[in-house]
Predict the 3D structure of the following.
Amino acid sequence: MSKPSLPKGTRDFGPADMAKRNYIFGTIKTVFEKYGFMPLETPAMESLQTLTGKYGEEGDQLIFKLLNNGDFLAKSDKEAIALGDSKKASFSLSKKALRYDLTVPFARFVVMNRSDIAMPFKRYQIQPVWRGDRPGKGRYQEFYQCDADVVGSASLLNEADLVRIFDEVLTSLKLEGVVIKLNNRKILSGLAQWIGKEDDLTNLTVSIDKFDKVGVEGVEKELTIRGFTELEIDKVKRFLSVTGSIEDKLNWISENLDSSEAKKGVEEIREIIGKVNITGLQAAALELDLTLARGLNYYTGAIFEVIVKESGMGSVCGGGRYDDLTGVFGWQGVSGVGISFGAERIMDIMNERELFPLDTAVTTQLMFVNFGAEEENYCVKLAAELRNQGIKTEVYPESTKMKKQMSYANAKNIPYVLLIGSQEMKSGELTLKNLDSGEQTKVKKESLFSLFS
C-alpha cells in the first residue's frame, strides 16, 4: 500500500491550526458585521461558463475544471482532442469548475436573486477557493478568502469604509508594517490612451501587474512580448517611475495624462482619501501605488492591495470597484466594490511573528480527573452545570492511571484539572490544579462558576 499524501498546494489543519484560523475568521467576521455586512455562502462548484472570461487570460488557465460525470469522453469534442486544442476540448469535457474566487459567484447570486434583495446589498463570505497556481510560500491551490462586497451603490463612501475595514482587522490582529496600496483603473485607462494603446488595456494591465515580482525590466520584457513599441514602453516606464507623495503623483498624472478618464480617476482617489481622513486610520499606512494594476478584467475604478512589510509575502488583501460585473449575467449597470482577505497568508505571518494569543488553542478550560464510577457520576453532573454556564469542560472518559490523564490534559493545553475523590465529594472542597504552575488549591464547588466565567 502506498504512503498517503496530500496534493501539492493543499494543507491539513489540525486542532491547533484550526483554532488559530478560526481566531482570524472571527476577527474578520466581527469587523464585517460592524459595518453592516451580512453572511452568504455559494456552492464550491459553478458552471464553467459562469467563471470563464472573468479573470483574464492567465486567470482562466488557473481554473480547476471538473470532468463531466460518467463517460465524459462520449460527448467530447473528438476533433479538438485529435488536434490537441485543449482549450476548445475542455468545454466538451467539463461543464463545471471549482470557484476561482468569491466575487464572480456573488455577482451570479445577485442577478439570480435580484427581486429578493434590498439595494445596496452588503454581504460577506468566508469560504475556500481553488486556483491551479504554482505552490510556494504563502501561495496555495486551495485557500480561504474572506470577502466583503457592496453592490447597488456607486458612492465612494463604500471604498473609504473598506479601507477602514482593512485597517481595523489587521490592527486587531496586531500586525505591524501594514501598507494599504491604492490605485484606480481609470488612471491606467488614461495611461493606455496616453501611449496610444487604448484598445489594448488588458495586455497593459496584465504586464504592469507583474511589477512587484519582476521589476521594471521584467515589465519591459513582458510588454515587448505583447507587441508594444519602444516608444510606448518608454512612456510606461516614465509612468511607473513617478515618485513622491500621494499629491505629487496625482499632480503628475493630471499634468501628463490628458484624458477625462485619467482625471476622473484622480478625482476619485482624492475623494476616497478625503473620506478616509475624516476618521483617519488606526495603524496602517495608505499609499498611492501607480504600479498596482490588478490584472482582473472586471475592475473599473479604485483598486486595492495590502502588504505587510518584512513578511516575505505578496499581498495579503486585495479588491476594487467593478461597475458592471453583473452585466455579464444579464443585469446591466449595477455598480459594486469589494475586498478580500487572504486568511492563509495572514496566518503564516502571524505564526512567524508569534502574534496569536496564548489562549487561542485552548478548547477546554477545565478537565475532571476520573477516579472511578462513583466519582465519574459526580463529575458528569458538575460538568453539566459548568457547561450550562458556558464553561468549556470535559470529564476524562476512563478511570486510568493519573499520569495518562495528565498527559492528555497537557497535550490539549488544558490549563486546569479538577481532582475529586471520595473525600472531596463529602467535604465539598475540591482540589483544583493549575497545570502551568503545578499549584494545587482547595475550592468550593460554588466558587468554580466565578473562577471560570
Remarks:
- The mean pLDDT is 91.
- Residues 27 and 172 are 7 Å apart (CA to CA).
